Amino acid sequence: VAGNQPFQVVWLSDAKRVEYLKQIEDFATERGEAAQPAIVFEGDQPADPDDNPLLREALAAGLPAAPAPMQRAWLGAAVAIKEPTNVVFERQAGSNLLVVGGEEESAIGVLAGSLVALAAQNPASGDAAARFIVFDGSRPDAAYAPVWQKIAEALPHHVTLAGPRDVARLIGEVATELSAREAAGREDAPPVYLIIADAGRFRELRRGEDDFGFSLDRDKPPRPDRQWSEILRNGPVWGVHSLVWCSSYNDVNRLVDRQTLREFAMRVVFQMSAADSTNLI
User: Fold this and answer.
1) Rounded distance between C-alpha atoms, residue 263 and residue 256, angstroms
2) How far is C-alpha 220 from the chain's CA centre?
3) Is the confidence at residue 219, as pLDDT, over 90?
4) How far apart are CA 203 and CA 224, in angstroms?
5) Closest CA to 228 of 257, 199, 198, 205
6) Which of 45, 49, 97, 95 is nearest to 246 (CA)?
7) Which residues on neighbouring strands pair with residue 159, listed in sequence order?
8) Helices within the chain (DSSP H only)
9) Other CB atoms closer than 10 Å to residue 136's CB: what's the count?
10) For residue range 64-83, what is the model confidence (pLDDT) as tens digits?
11) How many Å apart are CA 281 and CA 279, to the nearest integer?
12) Residues with Cβ < 8 Å from 112, sequence gap 6 or more?
């Protein structure tokens, strides 16, 4: 009871929904208040980023002069009356995102939406400009294959698109940059985001079966999988974060051991077996 006036609870049918929403809008107008949009949750419908008011505000505000200290990536719609589901990338250990499951469209939606959201919170030029590296493991016939190219062309930021042949070179560049930041103590260096779509297709990132933490041949260049493990462990503290999608838990096991899996403090899990879900979350 509010002001001695009882609340009225109404179960809306589809036919009545528009009528009642119009009544609510008229009531708000009479009181001189702005009517808020109705929240309608439909579990069988994918989230639409255009319905995310916080993302729209970030895009409309224009690019900032400096990177935000806490960078937010929106993953989808809320299933309760709260702001859209999101994760926050901070400069602390474990600030990496892992997405696991075979729902290709949803996984690409999570990563692509995160890229756009993070770009909106970072300068596109100058010494403070963020860098985005997308390792695209899309099959050539995949419906979502053109997505990354379209996003790279639309954003004013430095977005590097890479395939499996580019892994060793680019992982080496990021590992070198990370070492330089550590040596110089550059805690305020602009963020670098590694986005790895369908990571199971990148063989050079798979951990060696005979990897015991040492190498008998010190003259060989460092392996990309070991460099990436170092990036996962130490990168977030220095502004280097990884956003990774694996289509199955088996792919996760091929890429990282259980100790390295702890470096993914943020995880999105799609439908899978109870055993795989337990191992991940």
Assistant:
1) 10
2) 34
3) no
4) 10
5) 205
6) 97
7) 132
8) 14-30, 53-60, 104-120, 147-154, 167-184, 224-234, 249-255, 258-261, 274-280
9) 23
10) 989 988 899 999 888 778 88
11) 6
12) 147, 148, 151
